[in-house]
Specification:
The chain is about 70% helix and about 0% strand. By secondary structure, it is mainly alpha-helical.
C-alpha cells in the first residue's frame, strides 16, 4: 500500500476508533432524541432542520435503541473528513508530514470535534465540503469535467443537511429569480 493511501487510511481509522471509544458514555443528547423521532416520521419540509440528520438518526435505531450506532454515524463522517483532509494535503503537494498535520488539525479542531461527537445537521459537512473542495481542486488541475457532477452532488447533499426548509426555499428563489 502506498503512502498516498496508507496515511489517510490510518488517520481515518484512528479517528473513527477514538470517536467510538470516547462517544457513547454520556447518554443521548436531547437534539439526538428529537432527530430520531423526526426521522421516524420523515418529511422533506421540516421547518427547523434539514431531512438528512433525522433520517440518519432514525436509521441507526431500526434494531432497537443503540447509542453506539447513533454515535458511529458522526464518527464515520469525522473519519471521512480526516481522510479527505489528508488527500487534500497530498493533492496540494504536501508529503507525509503535511498529511499527518492535516489529519491532526481536522481531528483536534474544537468545532469539528463537536460535529463528530453527536448527530447534528453539520456532521455530513465534515466529509462533503472537503470532498467538494478536493474534486474542485482536481478539476482546476485538469481532471475530467465529469467531476463537476460529483461536486454538484456533494454540494446538493450539503444544502440538504445545513439549510432548514424555509431558508432553502428563500435560497433557491433568490438564485433562480
Amino acid at each position: 500500500m502506498s503512502d498516498r493511501i496508507r496515511i489517510p487510511l490510518i488517520a481515518s481509522i484512528a479517528t473513527f476508533g477514538l470517536h467510538l471509544v470516547g462517544n457513547p458514555h454520556y447518554g443521548f443528547f436531547r437534539d439526538e432524541l428529537y432527530f430520531i423521532v423526526c426521522g421516524q416520521h420523515p418529511q422533506w419540509g421540516y421547518v427547523d432542520q434539514p431531512p438528512v440528520a433525522p433520517l440518519l438518526a432514525a436509521g441507526t435505531q431500526i434494531f432497537g435503541h443503540s447509542l453506539v450506532l447513533l454515535r458511529a454515524v458522526p464518527g464515520f463522517f469525522a473519519a471521512a473528513g480526516v481522510y479527505v483532509a489528508c488527500l487534500l494535503a497530498a493533492e496540494l503537494g504536501g508529503g507525509a508530514f503535511a498529511e499527518i498535520l492535516a489529519a491532526l488539525v481536522v481531528f483536534f479542531a474544537p468545532v469539528l470535534m463537536n460535529f463528530g461527537m453527536k448527530i447534528s445537521p453539520d456532521m455530513v459537512g465534515l466529509w462533503l465540503w472537503p470532498l467538494a473542495t478536493l474534486y474542485t481542486l482536481r478539476l482546476a488541475k485538469g481532471a475530467n469535467p465529469r467531476g463537476w457532477l460529483a461536486v454538484g452532488v456533494a454540494v446538493g447533499i450539503c444544502l440538504q443537511t445545513h439549510l432548514p426548509f424555509c431558508y432553502r426555499q428563500e435560497f433557491f428563489a433568490n438564485c433562480l429569480g
